[in-house]
Amino acid sequence: MKEEIEKPEERKAERKTYSFAIDVQHASRFTAIRKKQRRAMADWASELAHNSKGKITRATARLEARRRRPELWPTLDEYVERAVRQRLAEDDLAGPWEPLTPAEVEAATLSGRGIGKNYPGYLITRAYDLPPSLVRALRTAAIRVSEGPLAELEELGLLYNSLDYTMEEQEQRTELVEKVFSAPRIVRQALERYGPWPPDERPPSAPPEDPKPSAG
Question: How many of the other CB atoms lie within 10 Å of CB of 111?
Fold first, then answer.
C-alpha cells in the first residue's frame, strides 16, 4: 500500500512543528530570504498606501500585504514543504511503501544518531511547520528504503563501525551505509536539490532547470 501524500487542496489543513538538522548553508540562505521578504513586504505595503493617495491607510496596506504573502512571498515552511515533496517524488523514495506499524511510528519520533552516512558539512537544528501527512510520508520512505541495507549490515556483522574490519569489509559497509536514509538526510537532500538557491550557487546535484524558450 502506498503512503498517501496530501493533495494541494489539503495543504492548508493543520500543520505541526517538526525539527530537522539541516546544513548551515541552507539555514543561512533561509535567514537571508526571510529578511529580504520582510523588506519586500514593507516596501509593497508602503507603495500601495502611497499610490492610493490617502484612500488606503498604512495599517490596511500592511494587512493586505499579509494576505498576499502566500502568492508573493512564500514562507520558509512552504519552501521546505515543496522541496520535500519533490524529493519524495523521485524514483528511489516514491514507493509504494507499506504503512508504518504503530511501533514504527513511535520509534520514528525518537531523536538521536542512528546508522547512516556521515555528513561532510556543519549542521544546525531548525523547526518548520509542516503537514503531518507529509512528515508521515517522509518517515515512511526513510524507514522502508533503509530496511534492506540495515538488514544486510546486521547479517554481515557490519552494523556498527569498528577498527577491526578488513579493507573489504569497510568498503562493503560504506557502500551499504550510503543506502541508509534518515528523515533529516532526506530533508537535507531536498533542500540541496530543490531549495531556493540563486543560479550562481546552484549545487551540482540539483536537477537541471527548465530551458528558457528561444525567441522567435
Answer: 9
Query: Is 81:66 a contact under the CB 8 Å cutoff?
Result: no
d(CA 34, CA 88): 25
Write out the DSSP string of 142-193. Answer: HHHHHHHHHHHHHHTT-SS--TT--HHHHHHHHHHHTT---HHHHHHHHHHH
How many Å apart are CA 10 and CA 33, to the nearest integer? Answer: 26
Q: How far apart are CA 70 and CA 64, in angstroms?
A: 11
- Could you state, in chain order, the average pLDDT of each consecutive group of 10 residues for the chain (216 residues)? 44 80 90 89 90 88 87 88 95 92 85 72 92 95 93 89 86 91 93 76 57 40
Cα–Cα dist 88/135, whole Å: 11
* d(C-alpha 9, C-alpha 28), whole Å: 31
- In which residue are the cell numbers 546486521 written? 154
Give yes or no for a contact between 21 and 124, defined as CB atoms under 8 angstroms apart.
yes
What are the angstrom distances between the C-alpha of 129 and each of 16, 94, 186? Answer: 5, 22, 17
- In angstroms, the Cα distances linking 86 to 11, 50, 90, 138 are 15, 40, 7, 11
Q: Are 137 and 96 in contact (CB under 8 A)?
A: no
- Supply the Cα-derived Rg of the chain in whole angstroms: 22
